[in-house]
Amino acid sequence: MAEIVRSPLLEGLPHGFSTRGGLTSDDVLPGAPLCKLVQIHSADAIKLREPPSEPREGDALVTDRPGLLLGIVTADCAPVLLADREAGVVGAAHAGWRGAHRGVLENTIEAMESLGALASRIEAAIGPTIAQASYEVDGGFRDQFEADDGRFFESGQGDRLQFDLPAYVAHRLGRAGVGRIDDLALDTYAEPARFYSYRRATHRQEPTEGRQLSVIGLRG
């Protein structure tokens, strides 16, 4: 069986972050349909009560219905799995820098709250994503952020900067009122035998199609 990474914070809930070996619904919630989106680096969060009949665009899914498995795919962007156990509401968000900056995490939390969740009860796990040491950016990238976001940037080689995506994601979650956050601190770029990385593949001029799948659901 392929390795599946799980968060101690979400222990007891059907969830998992895949590695290069992938995962299936039966590895996490046997018999559940896997619900995914056409991801577009947006801030759109979609509420699901049943499997979609046709592909929908967006970058986060939430549900309060047992037996559905929510899935998002990433290869450097941050996969975020969220749950309010008391309300019986879960969510999965694709949070690259664009989506996080545009508010996908806040919109995911708002969608969960519309189903009865409370931000202060939500537990959120940040799965394998590119780490600051591997994420080199330029000044133009930095200029797209607020002045007080400087804490997420460190000086790199020459005039380059290193961006801390998982810390930025955790910041956005905390600012939205999420009660508990678990950053698994797994760097997709730095572990080629374990994870796909779009940026690493681009640098090496390798195929860039590989993705990790991250899923969460509710038992019936």
Automatic annotation (TrEMBL):
Q: Known InterPro entries for this protein? A: Cu_polyphenol_OxRdtase (IPR003730), Cu_polyphenol_OxRdtase_sf (IPR038371), Cytotoxic_necrot_fac-like_cat (IPR011324)
GO MF term list = copper ion binding; hydrolase activity; S-methyl-5-thioadenosine phosphorylase activity
Keyword Zinc among record annotations: yes
Q: Which is one Pfam family of this protein?
A: Cu-oxidase_4
Please give the catalytic activity noted in the UniProt record: adenosine + phosphate = alpha-D-ribose 1-phosphate + adenine; adenosine + H2O + H(+) = inosine + NH4(+); S-methyl-5'-thioadenosine + phosphate = 5-(methylsulfanyl)-alpha-D-ribose 1-phosphate + adenine; inosine + phosphate = alpha-D-ribose 1-phosphate + hypoxanthine
Q: Tell me the SUPFAM superfamilies matching this sequence.
A: CNF1/YfiH-like putative cysteine hydrolases (SSF64438)
**Keyword terms, alphabetized:** Hydrolase, Metal-binding, Transferase, Zinc
Q: Which NCBIfam families does the entry link to?
A: peptidoglycan editing factor PgeF
Q: Which family does it belong to?
A: Belongs to the purine nucleoside phosphorylase YfiH/LACC1 family.
| Protein name, per record | Purine nucleoside phosphorylase
Q: Which organism is it from?
A: Qipengyuania gaetbuli
Gene name, per UniProt, is: pgeF
